[in-house]
């Protein structure tokens, strides 16, 4: 009982729901991230070296998005960053699902990377989770995200096949759609759990 309480600190229901939806988002992304390079080369016929450059650019754009997201969050609050990042991330995955040339694929990869960088949900958690349980929440969130990524990648490995290009398309669409629930949910509850104007650390009741 004591172990259970220490591992699962009491949180407002709205934050618990957000964390669960975040796991769903990561699970969806994991369906596509490990296999995007294979998709670009095998399904879309983009040369492997060029496909590597396209997908590698996503990491660079994630870093750029993180820098821009930091300034955005300082000015508008983390909910605004989640909204913009979630929309760009979803758009990028869906665009990638239907990309047939290198230019479109690069644009899609850039959107997913930049959007991921903007989201910065760790800042949101630091503001809505009480200080005394923040370490436990961050640890659980990190563990759950890694578990979800592993499960998503495993599912995709049994689903995506080069002989059925539509299997990749479906996974990419799911990846895009999965980033929206957590983003939309925070916009709905932000006035209750996140005092954006004060930018102070909240202690939800």
Please tell me about this protein's structure.
The chain has 205 residues and is mainly alpha-helical. The protein is built from ten helices and no strands. Helix 2 packs parallel to helix 8 and helix 5 runs antiparallel to helix 6. The longest helix has 29 residues. The C terminus is likely disordered.
Notable traits:
205 residues, mainly alpha, 10 helices, globular, disordered C terminus
Regions with little confidence, pLDDT below 50 for 5+ residues: 196-205
Portion of residues within helices: over 70%
Radius of gyration: 18 Å
Largest sheet: none
Distance between the termini: 23 Å
Which structural class do you get from the secondary structure elements?
mainly alpha
Shape: globular
Q: How many DSSP H or I helices?
A: 10
Average pLDDT metric: 83
Task: Give me the count of strands.
Answer: 0
Q: Can you write the helix and strand succession as a string?
A: HHHHHHHHHH
Strand content: under 5%
């Amino acid at each position: 009982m004591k172990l259970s309480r220490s591992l699962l600190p009491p949180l407002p229901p709205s934050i618990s729901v957000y964390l669960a939806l975040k796991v769903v988002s990561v699970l969806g992304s994991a369906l596509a991230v490990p296999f995007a390079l294979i998709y670009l080369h095998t399904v879309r016929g983009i040369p492997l070296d060029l496909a590597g450059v396209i997908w590698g650019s996503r990491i660079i754009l994630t870093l750029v998005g993180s820098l821009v997201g930091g300034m955005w969050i300082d000015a508008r609050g983390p909910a605004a960053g989640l909204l913009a990042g979630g929309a760009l991330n979803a758009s990028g995955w869906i665009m990638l699902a239907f990309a047939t040339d290198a230019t479109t694929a690069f644009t899609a990869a850039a959107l997913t990377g930049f959007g991921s960088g903007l989201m910065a949900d760790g800042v949101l958690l630091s503001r809505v989770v009480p200080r005394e349980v923040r370490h436990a929440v961050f640890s659980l969130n990190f563990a759950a995200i890694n578990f979800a990524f592993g499960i998503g990648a495993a599912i995709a490995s049994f689903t995506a096949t080069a002989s059925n290009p539509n299997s990749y398309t479906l996974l990419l669409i799911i990846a895009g759609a999965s980033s929206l629930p957590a983003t939309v949910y925070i916009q709905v509850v932000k006035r209750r759990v996140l005092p954006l104007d004060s930018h102070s650390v909240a202690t939800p009741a």
